[in-house]
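Quick one:
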Amino acid sequence: MEAKSVYVSSNCNQTPTGADCNENHLLAYGSCHAVLIYDLNAARVVQTLIGHTKRVNSVRWIRGSDGELVSGASDGCVVVWEPQGGAHARFILPAGGPTVNIVDGWSCNGRTIIAGAAMEPGVVRIWTRDAPGGEFHPSETCRIGRSLCMGLRLGGSATSPLLACALEDSKILLLTETDRQVWIKGSVLSGHEDWVRGLDFALNGQGELLLASSSQDSTVDRHNKYIEF
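Output:
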């Protein structure tokens, strides 16, 4: 008797940042211990990335890169996936905690910054890479207080990178990188009444940097006059 596959399904892990879509219509999502890449145009999974040993909690395409993505999992590791000849090489970055719950990545002028937060109150870890294809190095462990980090978003410019951290007290903390590649605390943005789940930076028509935030309180806020850029 001959058998053939008719339908295969792989569920997305039930985490707030377990999936992300890029400009090429590729959806990356965590499924159990793996990261799957789904082509929206072809309507099928085109790649399965194996590297984590426990549930994948957060997946993000690295904005500004050439198809790289970053994932964080309950194995305490952050993994950067770099496309190489139809496959993906991986860089494993130990996050120093039992579970990584949120990650983000951003590349500008060849320099890549990775941020990750574990289930460890008040700590965000940052790694940097100076050129594509190079090694990632720990940049800093930022102490942000006693709150857990519920969301991360990198943005800004090559000379003034920013990291927005959504905290469990419903506030948003901005971290700024100095000329000495040291991250310092900046403004604290308030206005939401529940956990902030979504963050994103954008430039308006006047070249001003804006930060949008969405919350479980069913509101979306736009922050601009508080951001120094």
